[in-house]
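dumping this here so i dont lose it
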């Protein structure tokens, strides 16, 4: 290798930083990564190189390396990308007791002065870090968050396929009318029509479940609410599930088992990342409680909540009263649930919310599969039946009872990792003020 790297050959020979610590003294290695730090102490110079697996010290003794390598070692700017070929040397003074004596160094890509602190103890405020998210991703803690979030998605898929025998589906993001009856939709121009970005895959997953029984999806949703909170996004991902021949209690049980599987998988796969983030996970228990019982409980706790919804304070109090527990609040007032939730009588519904660590992570329930009930509930909410004609008609051809839920991917990640702002767990967040990078 002279002035450029043959990437095909490099990938054959490449050694990750993590692998270096299993090598013996004198072995030759080829590594590539980002400059984390440099130091010069007279006739010895040090460079710390970082890749996705860790960091390693590169040490140059003036008399043991070429003049070119020695003079350049402390000249590389932080976050520059280097290729280094050299030999392993045992050293009790080096981190991990291994270091590399360089024989060749190639700067693959230089770096300007970084505009944010990308150290493991960054004090740069979140808004500026998000402005330079591509640099923020160089930090171990940020990498740990997204490795864990990746595991959560993979574990959800594994559980649904292997334990539930569900089919993964892809649903449209362009819709002709509201999925949930709300008005907070993003409008878009679709040829000569006005359409909306989907706020839910709800109606589609129901139609699929009524034919194929069990379906799941990791679906992107858009909500046009003009909020600026630490728990809401305008573009988010949901872990969605729908199942035929099921009521709310069947799918609540599946959800509890899904979260148990996901958390166990994160504990097994991401133990290093959890250590970096100083997070200790526990497998949650499950508690079932009616909306009316929660209301009585909040009276004794002097916590205000609405007639048909839980307040933020009520959710937080449930988290305090039942730590490390998924609290399933069921028998919800029908007026507090969307039109597609099955009524139960006496003003109640077969809908539920799941509260975990003091925050709602799921809304779900048994759906309406009887066209006449669906039409009645749409009319009661002043929604135009014509906008839902195809959806209603899908239940006129042998639609069984069915139920489901959707877990907010970013919200569950935020709660598991004890983070305070949901934007921390989104690679490139979208809220009312941010559309870049």
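and the seq i came up w/
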């Amino acid at each position: 290798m002279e002035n450029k790297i043959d990437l095909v050959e490099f990938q054959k020979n490449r050694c990750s930083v993590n692998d270096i610590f299993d090598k013996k003294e004198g072995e030759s290695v080829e590594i590539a990564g980002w400059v984390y730090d440099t130091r010069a102490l007279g006739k010895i110079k040090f460079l710390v190189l970082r890749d996705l697996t860790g960091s390693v010290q590169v040490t140059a003794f003036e008399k043991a390396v070429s003049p070119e390598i020695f003079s350049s070692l402390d000249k590389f700017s932080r976050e520059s990308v280097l290729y280094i070929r050299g030999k392993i040397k045992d050293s009790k003074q080096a981190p991990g007791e291994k270091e590399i004596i360089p024989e060749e160094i190639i700067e693959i890509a230089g770096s300007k002065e970084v505009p944010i602190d990308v150290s493991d103890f960054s004090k740069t405020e979140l808004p500026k870090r998000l402005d330079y998210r591509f640099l923020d991703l160089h930090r171990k803690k940020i990498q740990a968050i997204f490795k864990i979030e990746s595991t959560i998605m993979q574990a959800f898929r594994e559980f649904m396929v292997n334990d539930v025998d569900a089919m993964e589906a892809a649903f449209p993001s362009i819709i002709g009318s509201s999925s949930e009856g709300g008005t907070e939709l993003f409008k878009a121009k679709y040829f000569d029509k006005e359409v909306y970005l989907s706020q839910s895959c709800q109606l589609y997953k129901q139609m699929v479940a009524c034919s194929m029984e069990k379906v799941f999806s990791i679906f992107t949703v858009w909500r046009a609410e003009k909020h600026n909170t630490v728990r809401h996004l305008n573009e988010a991902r949901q872990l969605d599930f729908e199942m035929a021949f099921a009521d709310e209690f069947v799918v609540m049980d599946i959800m509890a088992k899904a979260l148990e599987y996901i958390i166990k998988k994160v504990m097994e796969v991401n133990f290093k990342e959890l250590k970096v983030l100083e997070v200790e996970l526990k497998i949650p228990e499950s508690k079932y409680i009616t909306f009316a019982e929660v209301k009585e409980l909040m009276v004794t706790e002097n916590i205000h909540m609405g007639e048909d919804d839980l307040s933020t304070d009520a959710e937080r109090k449930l988290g305090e009263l039942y730590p490390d527990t998924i609290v399933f609040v069921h028998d919800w007032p029908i007026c507090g649930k969307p039109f597609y939730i099955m009524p139960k009588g006496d003003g109640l519904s077969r809908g539920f919310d799941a509260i975990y660590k003091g925050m709602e992570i799921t809304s779900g329930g048994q759906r309406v599969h009887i066209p006449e009930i669906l039409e009645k509930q749409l009319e009661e909410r002043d929604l135009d039946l014509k906008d839902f004609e195809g959806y209603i008609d899908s239940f006129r051809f042998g639609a069984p009872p069915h139920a489901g839920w959707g877990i907010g991917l970013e919200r569950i990640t935020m709660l598991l990792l004890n983070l305070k702002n949901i934007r921390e767990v989104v690679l490139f967040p979208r809220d009312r003020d941010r559309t870049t990078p």
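The chain has 14 helices and 18 strands.
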